[in-house]
Amino acid sequence: MEELLLKPRTLEHVKIFWEKSQDEEIERLFPFNRGTLSDAIKLYEESLKPGARSFGKVIYIDGVYIGDVWCYGIDENDDKRAFVSIVIFDKTYWGKGIGKRALKQFCQLVFERYAINKLCAFTYIDNKRSIGSLEGSGFKKMEDFIEDGVVSCYFELSACEESL
Predict the structure, then answer these.
(1) Where is the signal peptide, in residue numbers (predicted)?
(2) Is 4-117 a domain of CATH 3.40.1030.10?
(3) DSSP letters along 109-147, please?
(4) What gap in Å lies between CA 144 and CA 162, rounded to an integer?
């Protein structure tokens, strides 16, 4: 099995991720905001500030940077939840269970680091691999919904389920 490491994000990772995610197939499969490289750098810089509401790691397999996993909308006060997202931009690693492994590691880290009770995630209903990664790492599908004409799914993982 490949060695999977979650490493700290750097400015260079942000630039690589932005470039690699400018891909028609990735854009079709993953519901994340499109923006300029400057927008991505600004979001990254915000994530480094004390009290930031986002946190991320980069995914390495056998020393190769293949994608990012992050949480956003971190709310430790009211809803006690955050939203999680993962994108493996290197398609040669799709369908190998890496997303599930990375999500499991990352979710454990987030629950240890933040005073939250739940992680939430969205994906498009047509993204079967993403759904499999979420379900395989313990997320439960809560509902389907339509946004901008696309059928999507909403998932949740509670802190007590993650520890099982």
Answers:
(1) none
(2) no
(3) HHHHHS--SEEEEEEETT-HHHHHHHHHTT-EEEEEEEE
(4) 22
